[in-house]
Amino acid sequence: MRTLVPRLRHHPWISAVLAGFSAVGLLLAALVAAPVSSAAADSGCRVDYVVDQWSGGYTAAIKVTNLGPAVTSWRLTWTYGGDQKVTSAWNASAAQSGKAVTVTDAGWNGALATGGSADFGVQGTYQAANPTPSDFAVNGVSCGGATAPTDPGTPTTTPPTTPPPTTPPPSSDCGGAVICTGFEDQSGTTPSGAWQFTAPDCQGTGTVTVDTSVAHSGGKSIRVDGKAGYCNHAFVATTADLSSVGPLYLRMWVRHTTALPAGHVAFVSMPDSSQGGKALRIGGQNGALQWNRELDDATLPAQSPAGVAQSAPLPTGSWQCLRFMVDTSNGHLDTWLGDQQIPGLHEDGVPTADIDQQWLSRTTAPRPTGLRLGWESYGGGDDTLWFDDVAVGSAPIGC
Question: What average pLDDT score do residues 37-63 get?
Answer without folding.
Answer: 76
